[in-house]
Amino acid sequence: MFVAEQAPYLRIAADLRRRITAGELRPGERVPSTRSLVREWGVAMATAAKALTVLGEQGWVRAVPGSGTVVSDRTPQKPPLGRARLVRAAIALADAEGRGALSMRRLAAELGVGPMTLYRHVPDKEELVRLMADAALGAEELPEPGPARWRPRLELAARTQWRAYRRHPWLAPVMLNSLVRPPVVPSGLRLVDWMLRALTGTGLHRRTRLQVIMTLNGWVGGLAVSHAIEVEAEQDTGITGSQRLEADMALLTGHLESGRFPALADTITGLADVDLDEAFEFGLRVQLDGIAALLGES
Description:
- By secondary structure, the chain is mostly helical.
- It has helices at residues 8-21, 34-41, 45-58, 83-97, 104-111, 115-118, 125-138, 150-167, 171-175, 186-196, 206-237, 241-256, 262-268, 276-294; strands at 61-64, 68-71.
- It has a two-stranded antiparallel ribbon with strand order 1-2.
- The model is unreliable at 1-5 (pLDDT under 50).
């Protein structure tokens, strides 16, 4: 997997932290200005400013009117690094920059510790991703006992997953790595159990009940994966989905005007971009209607 290089502003911030802790920059002394950092590191003004902002948020420096940015009088006390803090930082990194940016080395830099420190809390990256998925999905509440009837219960479960996938685009590819054998995370097991209880007493065979849940969850996750691919492409290239579509428009128009795809040309001509949430709403209604038909309900 691609491992992203540490962002320039983080390298600058780390160097300034090192100089402060080493005593090269003492409390009350001015730290290099943004202009000085631009010259020293060859970065943009915004990058240098972001490095100082990060140090300010962490409590290492403070702005003094008329004097610029100086080293704080008190060294910030970092909360102890535990598994929960590690997972939160990993989720924040993956949310902001995608799965490709997530590495143990990059995460250690974000937390201000050595890479080997992380292995005291998780054995490897695979386990870290499992914990991330459990925390991200588990943050979405499922009421107990929840709706009594199957349809509102399954609708709520689908919306809960969709909300988690939209908040964390990396989550769907992790959970849908295998639909038949998804990663074993307690929050995922809780969700499936909660959904299966909706079909208890419906007369469906237990295998059919499981297939119904797999089908619904697979559809929600599949739609979310398509969104995740677009988000990751934008994070990697800086080109949005709309920009890619615009670039391909001439090619698409040529195919549609060729006469080889008449139904498609008639359907999409004049339509705006497909709205993902609109597609979710339509598909969810169709999925639930299909389950109702399976149960013999009108």
